[in-house]
Amino acid sequence: MREAQRTAPSIIYVPQIPLWWETVGPTVKAVFTTLLQNIPTFAPVLLLATTDVKHGDLPEEIKALFNNDCEEVFNIQWPTCAERRSFFEDLVMKQAAEPPPSKNNSARQPLEVLPVAPPPKPRQLTEEEIKQLEEQEEDTLRELRIYLRDVTHRLVIDRRFRAFTKPVDPEEVPDYNAVIKQPMDLSTVLSKIDMHQYPTARDFLKDIDLICSNALEYNPAKDPGDRLLRHRACVLRDTAYSIVREEMDEAFEQRCQKIKESRKQRGSDCASSSFCVMPKEDSAPGCKKTDPKCNEILQMPAGPVDASTPWPKGKLCFTQTFLEKVLKLLLL
Known about the structure:
By secondary structure, the chain is mainly alpha-helical. The chain has 14 helices and 2 strands. Helix 10 runs antiparallel to helix 11. One of its GO terms (cellular component) is nucleus.
């Protein structure tokens, strides 16, 4: 069974299956049935069995292997006398009556050049098979997202990389967006992980490279502060690459890459739009579009944030501290 799966497409041929079933013991039967059930339905493996007994007269265990309603049972009628005569007529009356060809003549005759057969078209998966395949792919990508969150969290809590944990404030650096066309930071990386935008670890490391290249492009090595920031950006990139290369199995990354290519061929995107839900500007009661305070309220998270997502410092932390003090006074 394992060899048939490994060398698929393949055929498992069991001639006279009732005789074989009566010969083997119960252990072989149990192992055979279990291994057969473990083969995925979409795997290109065919179980071909023959018998001279009708399907209804077979043992129940054998009949359970083949579903008659799904056209898995084929009945072949005995050939008639005319069919037998037509089959053997050319062999007996023509080929056997003629003398065998000379070896010298056959060696001189050139072999016929046959055209190369085209590769078979890929079998179209059923809806059930596609659903099962997508569930297996999602389990793999879920493990990848959990791991990437852990890697990003370790980078966020490192004090050396504090400058890269949140977007650059345009009020503090007005010309940043004019110089850097594609800003990137670790908080944005976490958001992209949650939005399923990293089908492979290689895509994750591309954004880490982008953080480093942006820092090197905007901060020329003129003063000690800029040189320190450039140094920490390079350390961030080397640290992320080192963590991924040492901890992630190469076979797992290859499996993620195959999932990415498979979904691209099927026309399905790795990122789901259902994970991107933005509140409307007028969804809050008593809120006007021109009121800047309403926009701040709408931008605040509606629920608790996971521990791997750092809370931004500044106005939000001050508001939380102020509300806690007011609550304590009300309780007293």
